[in-house]
């Protein structure tokens, strides 16, 4: 008898549902694993769209890049919504199995790091050397200009005065905000009709950065709710460390240019 199930077979649902292996009897541990996996997959969805956006920018097609960025934003909103399900877990149900997680920490998520690297926050120290070997996508990403690097190169090709040292910067390191780039964005914002495509691109990039910061801020709230001031499993001082991370903004000049308007 043919036991094919086209739905299960197409997307390997049987393999998917075999990937949760709780080590305690807590039903909440199963939910914690499921949510962590859902979030990983959504990180990947966001990454796929950022790749699309970068490709379109390299082709000098800012409108097409905007469409990819707006799709990324939808996935980011879904990601943020997942925290609601995490909050359904009572703290006294979380703590008993937290001890079984050992040193497992979100800092070790290579898909999250790939997202940060793709956007331009390239802090290599956040990746363990063995992870660079195990996940070669991370080292490969550092050899390419980030999405923001490509955006600035695109602006330069349209005639905007992006400085040479930005266009030729060492892309393997984190992007350092620059006053002249802030001036470029301020110019765009002062004349939206003249720079319509750049203006729309700026607003879509800002939305991606805004949603990223919302994800971080909500994560911090969930962390305070679950573990208060306890140390993180990754070895940091927990909420205090995350609070510092929350100060970072992607595409920093898009935020600071507001002061100049
Ligand atoms: C109750 C649930 C959670 C708690 C208490 C928690 C706690 C923490 C803490 C304390 C840190 C700081 C680093 C450390 O010392 O470990 C951290 C980092 C991180 N967590 Fe969570 N976390 C939770 C759920 C999640 C989930 C579901 C995800 C998504 C898969 C996630 C992703 C991350 C990421 C990506 C970082 C690194 C952030 C960065 O490097 O900027 N966390 N988490």
Automatic annotation (TrEMBL):
<keyword id="KW-0823">Tryptophan catabolism</keyword>
<dbReference type="Pfam" id="PF03301">
    <property type="entry name" value="Trp_dioxygenase"/>
</dbReference>
<feature type="binding site" description="axial binding residue">
    <location>
        <position position="219"/>
    </location>
    <ligand>
        <name>heme</name>
    </ligand>
</feature>
<dbReference type="GO" id="GO:0004833">
    <property type="term" value="F:L-tryptophan 2,3-dioxygenase activity"/>
</dbReference>
<keyword id="KW-0479">Metal-binding</keyword>
<comment type="function">
    <text>Heme-dependent dioxygenase that catalyzes the oxidative cleavage of the L-tryptophan (L-Trp) pyrrole ring and converts L-tryptophan to N-formyl-L-kynurenine. Catalyzes the oxidative cleavage of the indole moiety.</text>
</comment>
<comment type="subunit">
    <text>Homotetramer.</text>
</comment>
<dbReference type="GO" id="GO:0046872">
    <property type="term" value="F:metal ion binding"/>
</dbReference>
<dbReference type="GO" id="GO:0019442">
    <property type="term" value="P:L-tryptophan catabolic process to acetyl-CoA"/>
</dbReference>
<dbReference type="GO" id="GO:0019441">
    <property type="term" value="P:L-tryptophan catabolic process to kynurenine"/>
</dbReference>
<keyword id="KW-0408">Iron</keyword>
<feature type="binding site">
    <location>
        <position position="98"/>
    </location>
    <ligand>
        <name>substrate</name>
    </ligand>
</feature>
<comment type="similarity">
    <text>Belongs to the tryptophan 2,3-dioxygenase family.</text>
</comment>
<comment type="pathway">
    <text>Amino-acid degradation; L-tryptophan degradation via kynurenine pathway; L-kynurenine from L-tryptophan: step 1/2.</text>
</comment>
<keyword id="KW-0349">Heme</keyword>
<keyword id="KW-0223">Dioxygenase</keyword>
<keyword id="KW-0560">Oxidoreductase</keyword>
<dbReference type="InterPro" id="IPR037217">
    <property type="entry name" value="Trp/Indoleamine_2_3_dOase-like"/>
</dbReference>
<dbReference type="GO" id="GO:0020037">
    <property type="term" value="F:heme binding"/>
</dbReference>
<dbReference type="InterPro" id="IPR004981">
    <property type="entry name" value="Trp_2_3_dOase"/>
</dbReference>
<protein>
    <recommendedName>
        <fullName>Tryptophan 2,3-dioxygenase</fullName>
        <ecNumber>1.13.11.11</ecNumber>
    </recommendedName>
</protein>
